[in-house]
User: What shape does this take?
Amino acid sequence: MGYRVLIVDDSKLARMSVGKALDALHPDWVRVEAATAEDAAALLDEVDLVLLDFNMPGKDGLEFAAELRGLHPDMPVAIISANHQVEIVNRAGAVGAAFLPKPLTAQALAGFLDDAAERLKAAGL
Amino acid sequence: MSAPVAKVLDAFELDALTELVNIGVGRAANSLREMVGEQVHLSVPKISLLARNDAVRLLGEREEDKLVAVHQVFDGDIHGRVLLIFPEKKSLELVRAVTGGELSLEDIMELEHEALAETGNIILNGCLATIANLLERNLKMSLPEILKGDGPEFFELDPPTDTGEVVLFLYIDFALRSRDINGYIVMLMDMPSLTALKVLLREFIHRTTGAAPPRQDA
Assistant: This one.
């Protein structure tokens, strides 16, 4: 079945670019988009997994991931950023999020999505 | 005269450029982190496209004190100059942050020039090299040069360019070792270069999204 993926990025271009990669890998999955963490928060109940930009105006991706984790302990989450400083990668790990470097490659995205699909299936979703 | 300048890039092209700069600044943060040995925070850049006079006025309104700039010239499919500008009184703070703060004031002052050039070079190259790579073009960068002044002279550097030059004005905050240092990245280019950049941005948008961008993203 097709999972519902929430793409959160302040850049429309980045959302379209992630969307294109996602379509190529899983054409049957449904894409939901938000430009801010605040907008994304309202959509969490409708989605199965989340792809999150780190550097956004307002709440950043890591702050949002930490909040999300409190509400949805098992939801697969990936942080996407060009900024791969070890502190940021570690913080992503600490909130149980995968870290994917930007610009996103199909290979990196596929790895995360396969893992997410397995976890969702194991959880009976 | 400022209205046509602001309209050269549409909202989607400006979004694409902001994303390129964002990736570039993210990479620069990694490099700075290697240099200072602890996390570096760089804010999401805010970009405006301005005529030169408006850029001079904006900088004058925001910063009243003396300024310091790291300046580099770039050349290739697009050419122009790029400057990292911040308040001069923050300059020694920046040097302290990148050198680790163990040095005497005398040493710091001696190292100021070198540390500024190196830091500026990392940030400016991080941005421009990333933009060039993602646009699939090559840009040559000159060595960094340090300038001090009030602001307007940074926009009037030799050799003189035509007055129709446009300015891409970016505002970023960076925090190093918990010292807040705000700065500006300024790209100056002429109209033919901006037009070339617009074409490259459209190609980039097409490559990454697989779709022609909407005509107007109002």
Summary: Chain A touches chain B at residues 10-14, 16-17, 19-20, 54-57, 81-88, 102-103 (CB under 8 Å). The two ends of chain A are 9 Å apart (CA to CA). Residues 4-122 of chain A form a domain with the Rossmann fold fold (CATH 3.40.50.2300). Residues 106-122 of chain A form the longest helix (17 residues).
